[in-house]
Amino acid sequence: MTTGWSLFVIFLVVLNIGGCAWLLWWTSKRRGDEARNAETTGHVWDGDLTEYNKPLPRWWIILFWLTIAYSVAYLAWYPGMGNFAGTSGWTSAKEHDADKAEADARLAEAFGRFDGMAIDEIAGHPEAVAFGARLFQNYCAQCHGSDARGARGFPNLTDGDWLWGDSPDQILTTILAGRQAAMPPLAAAIGGDIGVTEVTAYVQSLSGIKADPALAAAGQARYAGVCAACHGPEGKGNPILGAPNLTDDTWLYGSDFNSIAEGIRNGRNGMMPAHEPIIGETRSRLVGAYVWSISHGSNEAATEAP
Asked: Entry's PROSITE patterns (predicted)?
């Protein structure tokens, strides 16, 4: 807050407190004879019910003075007068940090026994899998779905198809460090729209989808010259690059002609953020254990966890 705004806030606070104090002082003066002979407001009901304009009861005034004294003490103890920090040194940031430290200590006590443990080993502990399931719902379900079955452009984590490999270390690396998958636009490299059509037909034929034989045959040569560098000469993919297997029935963006052609023509960019800075290593291991459990058959505890 700038000095000008600070002075403005202080002025408003002092003005309000001073105004309240003056009003109470002026009101408390109207006692004695004036209280006994108080003027009326001119309002009379039922012929004999008259409304008087009398001073406030003394106990009310005392309570108001105590309220003003309390507000002055509060503003001296806590920050509330512009840039004045208060004599207590309290700040919302300090309170947040203290609460966070307390919560982190409780979490460390709960999760600490799983530090450094492999995720397939952690998956053998139902309590750990339950922890991981809750963390998954908080941090991963937005993309992969609450059932971890993914969506278009977001991998299904319950099957056996893995772009970057399904070993415990590979899954953990994916969660900790994130992944950046990029397929460049290839229309110009494979011969324009005709090349895109032919390569699309060939890619469909690799996975057993019915395609025009002549187009697929023409697309095979174009595929071998450009696409095989990442997906392999047989189209089985490369986990090191995150290049998908084109010979199975699992498709991240769809297996219809238009979806495949769109990917070849315009490229694809998939990014999973690194979660170690977000939830830390141990909690990342717990999430990995949950994912491991639902994708490798040991999902009894995982099913009950949410």
From this structure: CYTC (PS51007)
Confidence (pLDDT) at 298: 54
What does the pLDDT read at residue 224? 96
- For residues 129 and 232, state if they share a domain: yes
In angstroms, the first-to-last Cα distance of the chain is: 45
- 81 among the known binding-site residues? no
Same domain? 38 vs 149: no
Cα–Cα distance, 179 to 119 (Å, whole number) = 18
272 is in an annotated binding site: yes
Q: Is the pLDDT of residue 304 over 70?
A: no
One domain for residues 49 and 149: no
Query: Where among 46, 77, 108 does a domain terminate?
Result: 77
230 annotated to a ligand binding site: yes
Closest CA to 57 of 35, 26, 34, 33: 35
Please report how many Cα atoms fall inside a 13 Å half-sphere around the Cα of residue 245, on the Cβ side.
Answer: 14
Range of the domain at 50: 3-77
Is 84 among the domain residues? Answer: no
**pLDDT over 70 at 305, yes or no:** no
Residue 20 marked in a binding site: no
